[in-house]
Design brief:
14 helices, globular
Length: 345
């Protein structure tokens, strides 16, 4: 409970500081004038894109639950999606989402092993999807946006490298876990020689145990080619919906000259540049990245306002919706527990 309070406090402070920095130079009169010209139809499309992103998240979880646990109905999937979103948004590296999802599914009688299998495979599909998606856009648009990428090349490169390494690990975990163990063991030995880590055997045994556990979970889905392809395709659509929020913000300010694919590409570069940052919702660094990478397509007089609208839709709306729904789910579950207790008594 104390950890949760600390997370809420840190997130609140980051939100406060981010909003304070972004709004300190805002001209109220200019803000009112710009607000009058904003195309609300495109703002609405931005919110619809967010809902599509959330809906697909739930569908993928539901498909995996049906395949692994044979459970019917969307309620468990909906709850897992909502609480996962909320806790991911308020924790560094989105690390709080999966433990709470395990807890929620456990309360609905989903065995821990099967709930873990659902989340492991969901993570695998997302990593495969986002890495391929971003790599294709990066290579396709590199020559066109090389000047922009120079500003954030280091961060985009690190993000892409982290995801490509992760994808490589996933592929090896799928098809050659013994080779993966061998590579990690040799890497640990090298790190030990240069005095970066100690207790090589202890760390290797821990890693080997994780590999064996994940292999058991992943093998459930590996043979279901239809579900695997469907989930990756849905992840592509989900990413397109989420990244397209930036395009709808662009059009909301009545800007033209850059295509949907161009804006989508820049937003994927931004995602790669900040995804490895250990901050809840990449608060602060997301805004800096937006200014550096998307500043070229947004006019300077609307850049700050566009950044605020983008954050409002992509982060704050998601945080508020998932937070309110998490509270409602908690209240409903408490009532159901009381009713069940009365029946038992």
């Amino acid at each position: 409970m104390k950890n949760n309070k600390l997370k809420f406090f840190i997130t609140f402070i980051l939100i406060f500081l981010t909003v304070r920095v972004l709004t300190k130079d805002i001209d109220i009169i200019q803000f009112k004038n710009i607000l009058k010209t904003v195309n609300l139809n495109y703002v609405s499309l931005g919110f619809i894109a967010l809902f599509v992103y959330l809906l697909i998240e739930m569908v993928i979880i539901d498909d995996l639950l049906k395949s692994i646990h044979k459970v019917k109905g969307y309620w468990i999937s909906f709850k897992a999606m909502v609480v996962g979103q909320y806790y991911s948004l308020i924790t560094p590296f989105s690390s709080g989402g999966q433990p709470v999802q395990l807890y929620v599914m456990g309360k609905d009688k989903v065995p821990l092993s099967k709930a873990t299998a659902v989340l492991v495979n969901k993570f695998v599909f997302f990593q495969v999807g986002v890495t391929i998606y971003s790599m294709v856009l990066f290579l396709y648009n590199f020559s066109q946006f090389k000047d922009i990428l120079q500003k954030a090349f280091l961060f985009v490169s690190i993000g892409l490298t982290v995801n490509v390494v992760g994808l490589t690990f996933i592929i090896m975990l799928f098809y050659n876990p013994h080779k993966l163990k061998y590579i990690v063991y040799k890497s640990l030995k090298v790190l030990n020689k240069i005095k970066i880590i100690k207790n090589v055997n202890k760390k290797y045994k821990k890693f080997s145990r994780y590999v064996n556990e994940y292999k058991a979970h992943i093998i459930m889905i590996r043979n279901n080619k239809y579900l695997m392809i469907k989930s990756i395709v849905l992840t592509f659509i989900q990413l397109t919906a989420y990244f397209s929020i930036t395009y709808f913000v662009y059009r909301a300010f009545n800007l033209k000259g850059h295509t949907f694919v161009e804006i989508l590409s820049l937003q994927s570069f931004l995602y790669m540049a900040v995804c490895f940052m250990p901050l809840p919702g990449t608060l602060g660094v997301g805004e800096i990245g937006f200014h550096a990478i998307l500043g070229i397509v947004f006019k300077q007089n609307v850049l700050v306002y566009a950044m605020l609208l983008w954050r409002l839709i992509s982060y704050y709306a998601n945080l508020i919706i998932s937070g309110v729904m998490t509270l409602i789910i908690h209240i409903i579950d408490k009532k159901n527990e009381k009713i069940l207790k009365k029946k038992i008594d």
